[in-house]
Amino acid sequence: MLTRRAALGSLAVPFAANLSLAPSRRKAVPLSISDLDRLAQTPGEPDEIARNEDFWAPIQRAFTQDRSIINLNNGGCSPAPALVQEAQRKHLERANSMPPPVALWREQEPAREHVRAGLARRWGVDPEEIAITRNASESLQICQFGHELHAGDEVLTTTLDYPRMISTFKQRERREGVVLRQIKLPIPCEDNAEVVRRFEQAITPKTTLILMCHMINITGQILPVKDVVAMARTKNGGIPVIVDGAHALAHLEFKLSDLHCDFYGVSLHKWLFAPHGTGLLYVRRNKIKGLWPLMGAAPESEDNIRKFEEIGTHPLAATLAIGEALIFHETIGGSRKEARLRYLRDRWATRLLAHPSKRARLHTSLKPAFSCGIATVQIDGLDTVKLGDWLWNTHGILATPIKHDEFEGLRVTPSVYTTLAEIDRFCEVMEGAINKGLEIKK
């Protein structure tokens, strides 16, 4: 599989450098309190708001994204809006203008609790079940390494899960004799019962742990977490399920409490638009004690969610600025945001599928129950990696080439700041590639 880092590494020469262009930076317009109030109170159903460009215009202007390029890889890591960047800057300046031991440990560390409470309230769980981490990988590896496993114990996941999480279990395989089993899922899949059936069919008396995505990062497929969790609890005395929610939280509108899962890991710098290097780990209250942290913690902390945050001295500016990202998200509204992301996806996907050549194929269902803002498209006859290189180097459009053992395609992930003009420009360029091949501008 072509990993995210490998894909981006192949785009060696940036578009602006190729064309000798200086970056065109547009000054963002931070949203005022009155702007936030007005947006939050805008009437209309989510699908109606999704098509209301007057609603999205100030949101688009709230980002500092360079508009000389088109970023359609927000699934990798999203930019933060200006108000989040400004909050992070202020917290960082505070930590360096006061004596750091005062700013970091007496002021900012206690303020983390307000962020924890806000996240817990927004996603319907107890604050004592939320740890603030650096990314989804850290959150998930806490769970993957934190469970007691022994030689011969089996862990179950899919062939479509995130490579780093698969590598984590493979390391436990090499080091401890744990057995990793992986199942294949249909691409795309429009049958939740089939997903549950395949997981259930792969369970043996030795299955000890399951890892699954809520939304698969390379296709955008939404999986039936609640159903798999319910099934797993009936097997082997109750098999724990670790849920990779890196692409689902703040992308889809749901409550963590609705999933009934015990473990859920997220990167907040994707769809919440929090500062880079922020994440969340949810652990059900009665499961905290039995889960080991990655770094050592005192025995009196064994049932405290904060044991997963013990990483030594670290900056808190990014953590505290999650608060502004949460305000930004709630101003938009989770259901409105989900509807907008799906609307943008449908705008480009349906246009490419309608091309007379019929060479565009989606590896993502367009049915709302099975996908949202992420979709992966393959153009028959075009190499996906070369297509990704050409889009960036020739046209300044960033999307993610995926080469997997089971499929290949270009993953396209617009965001709330993406304009319709940018989506249409992407379609024009892709139609040009279909019609004429990957022509290089002279």
Write the layout of secondary structure elements.
Layout: H1 4-9, H2 15-18, H3 33-40, H4 46-50, H5 53-61, E1 70-71, H6 82-97, H7 100-122, E2 130-133, H8 136-146, E3 154-158, H9 163-176, E4 179-183, H10 192-202, E5 207-213, H11 225-232, E6 241-244, H12 256-259, E7 263-267, E8 279-283, H13 317-332, H14 334-353, E9 360-362, E10 375-379, H15 384-395, E11 397-398, E12 400-403, E13 408-412, H16 420-436
Parallel strand pairs: 1-11, 3-4, 3-5, 5-6, 6-7
Antiparallel strand pairs: 2-8, 7-8, 9-10, 10-13, 12-13
Helix pairs in contact: 3-13, 6-7, 6-13, 7-13, 8-9, 10-11, 14-16
* Overall pLDDT level: 92
CATH superfamily of the largest domain: Type I PLP-dependent aspartate aminotransferase-like (Major domain)
Order of helices and strands: HHHHHEHHEHEHEHEHEHEEHHEEHEEEH
CATH architecture of the largest domain: 3-Layer(aba) Sandwich
- Spatial order of the strands forming the largest sheet: 2-8-7-6-5-3-4
Helix coverage percent of residues?
A: 40-55%
Give the termini distance in whole angstroms.
32 Å
Please state the CA-atom Rg, rounded to the nearest Å.
Answer: 22 Å
CATH domain class of the largest domain: Alpha Beta
Largest sheet: 7 strands, mixed
